[in-house]
Amino acid sequence: YLFYHVFSFISTNIGKNRENAQPIRIRFRTISQPNKLRFHVEGVFSENISPEGTGFSGFNTDGSINLNDLTIKKSAWVACYNVWDWKGWKF
Description:
By secondary structure, the chain is an all-beta fold. It has strands spanning 4-10, 23-30, 36-44, 56-66, 71-74, 78-81.
């Protein structure tokens, strides 16, 4: 069976400017291969902190974790522009 869990948090450790802290979601789910998890990391920033004129709205990446030896394989980070809602895996 498939299992997933979502961690959603806002980091307050980013410099001293806490009003610009934005949420990040990390989602884990099992796959058909034993002892492996897939993950998806996504950050969606609000329009009011996007650098003016850029449309920069966040980032995402995904990959897998081998639970036997704790190796991680991930894709490249992808910058998002004018995407103001969460994408990634649906609930």
